[in-house]
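Obj.: predict assembly geometry.
Materials: sequence records (below).
Method: joint structure prediction, all chains together.
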Amino acid sequence: MKRMPKIGMEPIRRRALIDAAINAIGERGALNVTMSDIAGRAGVSTALAHHYFGGKDDLLFATMRHILTQLGNEIRPVMADLSGQNRVRAIIAINLSPEQFRPEIIAAWLAFYVEARRDAALGRLFRIYVRRLHSDLMSGLSGLPRPAAIRTARAIAALIDGLYLRRALGEGVEDSAAAIALVEDYFDMALARGTPNA
Amino acid sequence: MKRMPKIGMEPIRRRALIDAAINAIGERGALNVTMSDIAGRAGVSTALAHHYFGGKDDLLFATMRHILTQLGNEIRPVMADLSGQNRVRAIIAINLSPEQFRPEIIAAWLAFYVEARRDAALGRLFRIYVRRLHSDLMSGLSGLPRPAAIRTARAIAALIDGLYLRRALGEGVEDSAAAIALVEDYFDMALARGTPNA
Amino acid sequence: MKRMPKIGMEPIRRRALIDAAINAIGERGALNVTMSDIAGRAGVSTALAHHYFGGKDDLLFATMRHILTQLGNEIRPVMADLSGQNRVRAIIAINLSPEQFRPEIIAAWLAFYVEARRDAALGRLFRIYVRRLHSDLMSGLSGLPRPAAIRTARAIAALIDGLYLRRALGEGVEDSAAAIALVEDYFDMALARGTPNA
Amino acid sequence: MKRMPKIGMEPIRRRALIDAAINAIGERGALNVTMSDIAGRAGVSTALAHHYFGGKDDLLFATMRHILTQLGNEIRPVMADLSGQNRVRAIIAINLSPEQFRPEIIAAWLAFYVEARRDAALGRLFRIYVRRLHSDLMSGLSGLPRPAAIRTARAIAALIDGLYLRRALGEGVEDSAAAIALVEDYFDMALARGTPNA
DNA sequence: AATGAATGAGCCTTCATTCAT
DNA sequence: AATGAATGAAGGCTCATTCAT
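Observations (raw structure tokens):
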């Protein structure tokens, strides 16, 4: 009864393998996970992982794309429903939400960041995300003069990443809320200076 | 003429191997460099690398320690000669100096950051650096109320790391000078707010 | 036609690898055989040997256990069907049978004996065998006073091992039959003295 | 003051290296000792060990020869001063003396025994020893009929080796004295049977 | 007399990947 | 749809040995 090959298993297996990859990377802390490990966590053979993804690089690429897509899915309604500084605050909150602050997610981010320096496809993926974040922030900073807006968007993005990085070491800010507060504090200052009469 | 073994080679070889490791990591972008690669760049056999360092992990550890030591050597005179906001500005400038902004150095930082999550010794090394940077910054922020000083120190540190991270992707700020300007800008705001009458 | 993977290969490969290990040890004369050599004799890659056994030590351990198990399988019926001096004589005959006197088996015994001094697991394996042989012999010597029985059991065991050792050099007794005769001769004397009226 | 190259160091170094080899083999339990280990124990560089012995095999060969020579030196006076069964008893006592029963000596014996199966020179060395022991024993057994003498000599030799072997495992007989008693017991029986009227 | 420096060769082990079923 | 079987390639590490000094 155990073997009941059903049709339409593909999406289920793909998702299970991606989740397994995230978990594996999260635990190992880097991309030097083995296909064996990932497949084992997903409860399938390594051969099947190859069957569905083609190779290790492809699986890892799909995994990172999944993470970025998830993040994008959370951002989208913000862009639709909010504007101005509320939009910026929402973006900050989502990027530093407890969900994104989970250790295994941070580990995966970091590991992929490193790998992106060499893997062209991965690099493209990240650059798209980076630019999108920048333009999303800019769209919420239209109240500021353009040079100040650029500067502020860059600083917010850098703060977010920096807080991730230190979080990976277990140093720095305590938790998600503290991280958000820190960036908000910066944003408040930037706003106060940029819009004297607001 | 090829074989001309002299005595006192140890420090020379050690240094050559560490430099080779930095270069290798810089090019490969991660810690999955091979001893073969490193040794080849240093112009020696892998056996010799093992002879002097014991193993791959030890060599990489020594490499990261070397990088941190170099940074520490640049910071030290600042701590001796400057104080107050000048001290803070000097720390920022050094951490984001063109030297530290070299691609291979950034790559090494990142790679080691990732690895530090699992390698206990490496983790300790980084935590020492992180805490030292924090206390160095704090010592230059005595003009601010303590909570504001803590917040500011954390933000500066996060900004520095975040700018590194984005730099690794070739995105974000253009160069060392722009990075410094960005952090200084933040610092100016924090000072302005913290010391109303200054 | 070269690649025809079937299922259920595991026991076949394991056995082939163990046999190959025995042969390799027999030819090399010691445990410094290479996985490459063993795998080659078994007609498989070294990777497969690792796949099935985990590592060199595990394979060698399994090999020695196999040899001891084989011996145990020969002894078992003797313990079930015979008793008294017949039991003892049968044990002697089996331990020194032509099968056990094969050069490669002797070589393996010797090599493992040496290794057992350091490998804890191997040491345990041997000690179990040694004690079992002793108790088996004792059970056939119940006709003798206990001190004499102990002495006799020890002497028989030592004679068996000693004959092996010398056989390894190609010195001493000619063949299996001569070895058995030598130990039997001792046993006859021990019996004659121990049971004056028999 | 530490470096005072004296003349006539050769015999001193050679002896130190041989002693170091015995210790190393005794601790490691097998011949897979390293030149580095041996040289270290002798307080010299590996290069010097090569200088004096030519290579690892040569050093190990010299080590075994040393052990056999030492044993021969103890036997010689016995052959000169004793005869008959006293000679035999003395040979037994020396071969199983506490000195020969030292763990490191047993380990070395065993290890060399194994190696002797392949190393021709070592094999020759051992065969000489085996034959000499046999002829020494025979010369003390002239009171027995020749076939009985041969059998007895072989049994005594096998008992000695067998007791060594089990001793290596920490099983069997308790100590040197018990080992000697066991062989003597056999010898008494053999004598009693062979010389009814003595 | 002695050694530091250096290496080549070899071994164990891991792992992504392929293939027939 | 899924897997067991199997391997090639590569990496880390060890060690005996050589050489110039």
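Conclusions so far: Residues 3, 5-10, 13, 44-48, 51 of chain B lie near DNA strand E (CB under 10 Å from a C1').
To do: check interface contacts against the pulldown list.
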